[in-house]
Amino acid sequence: MEKVVGSGALGVAKAEGFYDYTPEQAKRWGEIFLKLVMKFARSRKGIPKMSVIEGRRTMEFTYNQASRREFIGSALAAGASAARLRGASVIPLAPTPQMGWMSWNQFGQDVSEELVRETADILVNSGMKTLGYRYLDSTITGRAAATARSIPIRNAFPRESRLLPIMCTPSVYGWASMLGIYSDAAGNTCEGQPGSFGNEERDAKTFASRGIDYLKYDYCHVPEDQETAIRRYSTMSAALRNTGRPIVFSICEWGPRQPWLWGGKAGGQLWRTTWDIRDIWKGSFDDTACGILDIIDHQAGLNRYAGPGGWNDPDMLVVGLYGNGRYTSPKGYPAPNDIEYRRKMSMWCMMASPLMVTCDLRKMNAATREILTNPEILSVHQDPLGKQAARVLQDGDREVWKKPRKGGALAIALLNRNDGPKTIRARWNDFGITGKRRVRDLWQRTELGVLTDFVELEVSRHGTVALHVA
């Protein structure tokens, strides 16, 4: 069965290139394409691989010649109505965890056109976009931008455009591939800007018409009960689906109402499982000093709630902040070092957590670049099997985590919580495997050989060794 990449709740758009078509031209291409699909579906001849232009995006459709049924999916072209297509397998929205850049931790609401343009350029020129960092997400409030009721936001982005201010130039729109915005499930956001409560349908239509691919939906100024949260998130997710545009929906209620139990049913593709992360190694699991180690501990046992199309989100990456985050560097706590940042990157990849970088990429040093762009650890993160790691051993300061990979291989993480180096042994029988296994160190990018029954390595203070075992 061929795969169909479609839009709406049934599939996800696949960016193939960027073309400077007007909305009218795009709509016409979409209408032509839909007629061709239905014509070939009726004749059972099948259709070749084709693309339908949607602004500067393309979507690919293929037809299974053995099937007489119409396909499932939709062809959306800048306002063209979607066609129902049945009988093909569908790639879900967010089949692997999201990767990208988010402005909040470093910049708050001080987001300028220059910052967005320069960051978009770095995502491309550094190779990060090629590695999967495709989302460019700003803390600009979606409703404020959509209604043009926020004078500071309009002043920050003076250039007129049919896109929301964050996409104010063709270069940003093209480089980023996937574009994000922020709103709240109340009348106001955490920072006092207009939220979307009561205006979900209107805001969703605005986001869709202006090319938004990702909505982070916060939960300030709302009732504390779970029922209200489910209802408000479900309302916005329904509004997003009604637009016909595939928009990744990020549920951000910070975990107190256990969104891993209901986030997927409420229409989310990811849901925050923790309080806001702070740029510290260890603090306390609350909304003031939630450190890297605190959040890792809180993810143990949540692996069964994550998979393709729905991910546990333990918050953004603080790698590279070095204590300079505007909202994430509390006083009285030292900033993590590069070993601790690498621990975070290792575990966020093992846990299939969204990777949203928040440091100033314009000032990224060599160590930060190496941590964020290691293709071997990123391959663990983007593994199509979509499994979140589970903790299989906890022995004092020693921990072992495992993540099943496509094809029967495993990713294994050896964690040392101690303030000094520790030797950690991982036994094959703890993973349900036996015999000789080929082992590779993903950070050193070296083969450790074919090992029998176990692997044993020294792990540095607060360090993590990430291994591929096949």
Please give a handful of descriptors for the protein shown.
Immunoglobulin-like; 8-stranded parallel β-sheet; 13 helices; 21% strand; TIM Barrel; 470 residues; alpha/beta
Structure in words:
There is one protein chain. Helix content is 26%, strand content 21%. Strand 14 and strand 15 form a beta hairpin. Helix 11 packs parallel to helix 13 (375-381). It has 3 domains: 3-90, no CATH class; 99-381, Aldolase class I (TIM Barrel, Alpha-Beta Barrel); 390-469, Immunoglobulin-like. The protein contains 13 helices and 20 strands. It is globular and about 60 Å long. It is α/β, with parallel strands linked by helices. The strands form 5 sheets. The protein has an 8-stranded parallel β-sheet. The longest helix is centred in the first third of the chain and has 21 residues, at 23-43.
